[in-house]
Amino acid sequence: MNSNPQIENLSLSFETLNECYKNGYFSVIDVVNEVLRRIDVRGNDGVWTFLLEQSDVVQRAKDLMDMDAASLPLYGIPFCVSSNWILWGSNYSEFFLFVIS
Q1: Contact yes or no for 92/50 (Cβ under 8 A)
Q2: How many CB atoms lie within 10 A of CB 3?
Q3: Alpha-carbon distance values, 23 to 20, 42, 80, 91 (Å)
Q4: Which residues sit opposite 66 in a β-bridge?
Q5: Helices (DSSP H) in the chain: which residue ranges?
Q6: pLDDT-derived band of residue 91, with 50, 70 and 90 as boundaries?
Q7: What is the pLDDT of residues 59-76, one digit of tens each?
Q8: What letter does residue 70 receive in the DSSP assignment?
Q9: Which long-range contacts (CB under 8 A, 24 or more apart) does 17-26 make?
Q10: Contacts of 77 (CB under 8 A, 6+ apart)
């Protein structure tokens, strides 16, 4: 995974990400790639039981970028689904996602 030196130390807080998206500093795809890079750097530390394929998450990010960010309060905010939740259409109960609706 390639790294963007300007995004490596970026806070992933709602405020910071919303400001970055609003001002065009980074795209949702940039953030997807950075979060996955950070997870990769941590290695297999047992925090993540399953991750979606990077290509699938990037596609979700591309789809999200076609939507109206102002109408989505959690636009581009990374999150995971806890093991006690079920993601519709998936056999997995915990993995990395991006808000798309």
Answers
A1: yes
A2: 12
A3: 5, 29, 25, 37
A4: none
A5: 14-23, 28-42, 54-65
A6: low
A7: 999 999 999 988 998 899
A8: G
A9: 17/76, 17/77, 18/75, 21/69, 21/75, 21/76, 22/69
A10: 14, 17, 98, 99
Residues in the chain: 101
The Cα 81–Cα 18 span in angstroms is 21
Residues 6+ apart with CB under 8 A from 27: 21, 61, 65
User: Two tokens at 35?
Assistant: 């979060």
Q: In this structure, which amino acid lies at residue 13?
A: S
- Residue 19's pLDDT band, with cuts at 50, 70 and 90, is very high
Q: Token match 């905010």: residue? A: 77
CB contact at 8 A, 96 and 31: no
Characterize the bridge pairing of strands 78-80 and 96-98: antiparallel
Per DSSP, 84 falls in state T
Non-local (6+) Cβ contacts of 58 within 8 A are 29, 32, 33
